[in-house]
Amino acid sequence: DAGVTQSPTHLIKTRGQQVTLRCSPKSGHDTVSWYQQALGQGPQFIFQYYEEEERQRGNFPDRFSGHQFPNYSSELNVNALLLGDSALYLCASSWDSSYNEQFFGPGTRLTVL
Amino acid sequence: AQSVSQHNHHVILSEAASLELGCNYSYGGTVNLFWYVQYPGQHLQLLLKYFSGDPLVKGIKGFEAEFIKSKFSFNLRKPSVQWSDTAEYFCAVNPATDSWGKLQFGAGTQVVVTP
Fold first, then answer.
1. Is B108 in contact with A4 (Cβ distance < 8 A)?
2. Distance between CA A76 and CA B10 in Å, rounded?
3. DSSP readout, A35-104?
4. How many CA atoms lie within 13 Å of B93's alpha carbon, on the beta-carbon side?
5. What's the gap in Å between the CA of B90 and the closest CA on chain A?
6. A41-99 pLDDT tens trace
7. Which residues of B touch A55 (CB under 8 A)?
8. Cβ atoms of A75 and A32 closer than 8 Å
9. Are B100 and A56 an interchain contact pair (Cβ–Cβ within 8 Å)?
10. Dihedral in degrees, nearest 10, Cα atoms B112, A111, A78, A43
11. How far apart are CA B28 and CA B87, in angstroms?
């Protein structure tokens, strides 16, 4: 059983560009959450998708958007990249409800030059 | 503002030593509490969690944590560490009013266990 997978592993972009990161949840999971982990910090919640809708959002600007597909996979899009967007982006999946463990993927390392 | 604080950023200790990592949170209401671990080159994975009941919870690999409500703390312990416990440890909080599981993490503690 594959766990949470993310692609790409690494990505280098320049300021002002747009980026799309992808996540496939663990089999049987229907909820996907995205986190940003800057160097030396803990993960920060970006948003969560359930039933193809964004149902919860952290303190991130509208430049950060996402999508969930009918197969529960998800994308994170970031527009107008800033240097400060450089971070490890983590995807976590779970079966709906806060009582269910969130399983994390390996992350996508985004570098903005 | 609600926050999660981990007391130490780096801890270095020898094999067989005891480990205790501090975690304090500032939420006023009921919370669900978690410790996650990230071994070198691996994904974040759940060590243990507390939702209710016995405030002393046991997790994988011999770890345990104690919830002290009056101190808003959830400290992680292991009586005798091994070299394989070298990892980064994150405390995380989810307000019980949030039924969808959003996690707020502390900054993490890097633990290095020397042979």
1. no
2. 32
3. EEE-TTS--EEEEEEETTEEEEE-S--TTEEEEE-TTS-EEEEE-S--GGG-EEEEEEEESSSTTSPPEE
4. 23
5. 7
6. 999 999 999 999 999 999 999 999 999 999 999 999 999 999 999 999 999 999 876 56
7. 100
8. no
9. yes
10. 10
11. 30
**Do the bridges between strand B10-14 and strand B64-68 make them parallel or antiparallel, or are there none, so unpaired?**
unpaired
Residue B87 has pLDDT above 80, yes or no: yes
Q: HSE on the CB side for B84, CA within 13 Å? A: 3
DSSP A26: P
β-partners of residue A11 are: A110
Sign of the CA dihedral running B44, B89, B22, B53: positive
Integer Cα distance of B40 and B38 in angstroms: 6
- What are B71's two structure tokens? 């101190």
**Strands B109-114 and B10-14, how do they pair?**
parallel
Q: Taking CA B32 as the corner, what is the angle to CA B26 and CA B37, rounded to the nearest 5 degrees? A: 95
Place of tokens 């996690």: B103
With a CB cutoff of 8 Å and minimum separation 6, the contacts of B86 are B39, B40, B111, B112, B113
* pLDDT one-digit tens code per residue, B18-29: 999 999 999 888
Interatomic CA distance for residues A76 and A3, integer angstroms: 18
Instruction: Identify the residue among A30, A45, A96, A98 best suited for mutation to test binding to B, counting B beta carbons within 10 A and taking the highest.
Output: A98
Q: Which of B114, B115, B90 is nearest to B25 (CA)?
A: B90
The shortest C-alpha distance from B101 to chain A (Å) reads 4
